[in-house]
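Summary for the funding panel

The consortium committed to producing paired sequence-structure records for every protein in the target list. Below we show the first two records in order, beginning with the earlier of the two.
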Amino acid sequence: MPTLRAGEPPQPAETSRAMWPASGAIAGVAAANKKTNVRENGMDRLCKASTRSAQIVLVSRFEDFGFSAEQFGQGWEIRRVQQVRDLERVVRGSAPMAGILDLQSTYSDAELTQLEQGLQHLHVTWVAITSNEMIEDERIRRMIRDYCVDYVRTPFSFDELAYTLKHAHGMASLHGVRAPEHVPHGPMIGDCNVMRVMFRSLAKVAHNDAPVFISGESGTGKELAAQAVHEASSRRKGPFVAINCGAIPSHLVQSELFGYEKGAFTGANARKIGWIEQAQGGTLFLDEIGDLPLESQVALLRFLQQGCITRLGGHQSIPLDLRIISATHVDLVLAQTDGRFRSDLFHRLCVLTLTIPPLRDRGEDILLLANAVLTEHGHEAHRRIRGFSACATQAMMQYAWPGNVRELINRVRRAIVMTDNRKITAEDLQLHGGVELPRKTLDAIREEAEREAIRTVMASHGFHVVPAARELNVSRVTLYRLMHKHNIRVDSQPGAVAE
């Protein structure tokens, strides 16, 4: 994504320009108008850039519209984003910017969703470029209405667009410089969308004192999430006590949780402080709460309701001030139906909820985590390891990771110790099927997806073009053109009707 900077010394901007054609090429440049454009000069003074970072971001897959930084004056820069998926990364944490959004091109529903994520930042103010045909699309109209301060249709005047962009930059500047978002998440690692959403929820949960329930598959890092909540909360200076309820024998659960007095039972030779009492002033993490016996669930419910416990063999109520965080891989809704978990305890524990996504849904976080494990444990190897081979990377991205992050750590650490290679291979990770395959280009993948979508929709409508075009949200002419492009013939299909 190139960045264009205005040269030094600045070239005088031309104040009279031809109308911009839809193709993006400059049709012609008129002679400079000697008369001063008071409105534009005034806007120049108001919106002259105070920083050297990009002030204009252009989101366009195919065109740059012939724009150059010099046309806007000294100190302006233009940064072009050609891939929709890159927009969020570019604008997050940037200085205030004006944005040009090319809405002449067609976008898939997934791309429109990605666009909307990148358009929600208040420190970037957007102006759309569209056409008479695209403005009839309700999705495009909604996007302009919800996220843009103005729009122009092709062909357009550069002078009018430049004035609008400078105004947009001035409005964006009112929000100040956007600092990168730092959401506390302790030792947890992740940068994919689902993890960023989870981290934001974690930050909100941490600033409240209500009980938290963390759900997720085994090995996803529920205890790390509980620690992150504790460290970001007002109780961070207190103890963090973690208990695995499934690891305690059922006949010892109550004595371990609530403690006991001397002489409470045979072998109770001294008073024992239970885990709950040890967490006074801090956080108690009850892992695998779904494995807690029903009789212990009653005692825990009483503590949550009254804020007091009584040690086994004791008669004194002990008031406690602590926070409860619980987690399990068990479906507690189903457990309630089966009578294995009390509904009233469920509602007491699940006031606030966090869901940790499985590793298979975290995309390139898999590689991020693998490299973090390699960095942390690389010293365990008998020779220096320089990373992962291409086949290992592919195998990790294709594997389903049923054991989640715990399994990834296990496989990478074993590979670090056992490999004889400079780079860890798929065989070192014991991930088979990681043989390097011929890779498709992005264009080939798009072509294949487009062809399959058209075939599926056409088949669902009995190869009738009109309803298929309506569902695909394209004109009948466009659909015919795409069918010809992909060699999809209506007359060759059984039961098809020519239109």
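The next record, for a separate protein in the list, is shown here:
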Amino acid sequence: MKASKCILPMLLVPCLIAATMPAGSLTTFGEATALSGIPVKSGAAVFPGDSIKTGAGGALFTLSDSKSIQIGPNSEVRVGKDSSVEIVSGMSRVQSKTQTFAMLASDWKLQGQPDSKTGVLTADVVRQADGKVSLNVASGQVSARSNRGNVVMVAQVGRPLLLPASIPMPDPPPQGGSSASGGVSKPVIVAAILGAAGLGAGIAAIATQDDNSDLKSQVTSLATQNAALTTQINALRTSLNAVAAAAQQIKGLTDQLNTALANLTNLSNQLDVIQRQINTLVAKVASGQSLTAAEQASLASLQAQQAALAAQITTASNTVNTIITSIKNTVVPTP
């Protein structure tokens, strides 16, 4: 009995440690990124169960196993209790070196496979508001399996896919029907992206039990590829609009900074004039000569001018620092 009491805590300790270990860290672009509803800045730890929701700037979620997700503007990613990653909304660019990358999106389980030569996986995953999922692979490939397991699709470099939000259950087989092996076979759809001359988007070949499946699959695939490309264009347009807005904001701040720097230059020139007059008076005193009443009055005036310029320089310096901080906080999102 005592032995069993000792074993139980030993079994629980690794579970508790695993539950408190962070899944990765977050780099934010701007001030609008929230972690489980709480605004955060760069360096925040991300734990299993957290959700990451970006604003106009986006964010970078770096996992602990050479994987990362560049979360686009106004997008959301959720980290499961087992540290799995779900693309909830918007656009995310997933990257991995040498390791596979498992993700969830709508009714699909996604498996990213790095390129066999470079060992790098790079793919854009977009989950639309209606639940459709777009895949666009830059390196490696991504396979998508429906949660019911009755559909498998593969997206490769240059051949995007647009996945429906969900796959309906297959129709039940007719009563009394049997396969050649004596059992009832369920329809299974397997789609692989194939290259085809003249079709830049690619053609997906879908194998079904329908005799006319070849023609139907080609027509369906072309429509799917076109929709996937349209989704990517819309996502890029959204990102570029965010880039343009950020760039415009930076331009306005840069104009303010140039004005402030010009003001500092003017103040510096005024200080040089005062310094030359002071040097003249210092040289006279150093030679043992006495200052005339007019020179003493001039000295007092120079001191007053210097004090006024010092106050102006302090104000200008504060203005410059404020502008520089604003520029640092305005990060142009990556499309």
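Regarding this second record: Residues 19-83 form one domain. The chain is about 40% helix and 30% strand.
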